[in-house]
Design brief:
The structure holds two protein chains of two kinds. By secondary structure, chain A is mainly β. Chain A is 0% helix and 50% strand. In chain A, a hairpin with a 5-residue loop joins strand 4 and strand 5. Chain B is an all-beta fold. Classes of the chains: A mainly beta, B mainly beta. At the A-B interface, strand 4, strand 5, strand 9 and strand 10 of A face strand 4, strand 5, strand 9 and strand 10 of B.
């Protein structure tokens, strides 16, 4: 049973480009969460999605950031027109809600903006 | 708004020592609490999960306790080893199982 899979593991973008980060939850998990870890900072919640629905996006920056979890395929975190301050590790977690509520995390995607 | 604080921010101990990491949270209306380990440049490894109705959980040399009413949790590591060196993160689960994280304790176990 594969864990939470994130790709790419490392991504380098120039300012103004777009970054797309993908997350495949654990098998049987229908809830996906995205977190951001800035250098020397703790992990901050960004967005919580279920299939085809955004449930809680209270941690998402108002502009340039969007997320989706389509009926088929992985969840996508999209950052448009990246700036240097977007450089961070982005972690995805999944959960089989209704059981223990335990979140399982992927290895993260590390975005560097030049 | 839930806030999670971890003390100390960093800890250095000799191998073999028993140690305690502390976590406090401001809102006692939690669903669960998870302790994670993070190695440099790596993802998060779940160590222990405590449901809000539980007082403690144990796994090998690790024991985590939860006092929901006082907003505290501790992670006890027995007989520490150099391989235990990592950052330990406390995270409190709220509505929709959303986790709020502390900033972590950086543990160094010296041979």
């Amino acid at each position: 049973n594969a864990g939470v899979m994130q790709n790419p593991r490392h991504l380098v973008r120039r300012r103004g480009q777009e970054a797309r980060l993908r997350c495949s939850p654990m098998k049987g998990h229908s809830h996906v969460y995205w977190y951001r870890q800035l250098p020397e900072e703790g992990l901050k919640f960004m967005v919580y999605l279920q299939k085809e629905n955004i449930i809680d996006e209270s941690g998402m920056p108002k502009e340039r950031f969007s997320a989706e979890f389509p009926k088929e395929g992985p969840s996508i975190l999209r950052i448009q027109q990246v700036v240097r301050g977007d450089s961070a590790a982005y972690f995805c977690a999944s959960c089989n809600a209704g059981a223990t509520g335990e979140l399982f995390f992927g290895e993260g995607s590390r975005l560097t903006v030049l | 708004k839930q806030e999670v604080t971890q003390i100390p921010a960093a800890l250095s101990v000799p191998e073999g020592e028993n140690l305690v990491l502390n976590c406090s949270f401001t809102d006692s209306a939690i669903y669960n609490l998870q302790w994670f380990r993070q190695d440099p440049g790596k993802g998060l490894t779940s160590l222990l999960l405590i449901q809000s109705s539980q007082r403690e959980q144990t796994s090998g040399r690790l024991n985590a306790s939860l006092d929901k009413s006082s907003g505290r949790s501790t992670l006890y590591i027995a007989a520490s080893q150099p391989g235990d060196s990592a950052t330990y993160l406390c995270a409190v689960g709220g509505s929709n199982y959303k986790l709020t994280f502390g900033k972590g304790t950086l543990l160094t176990v010296n041979p």
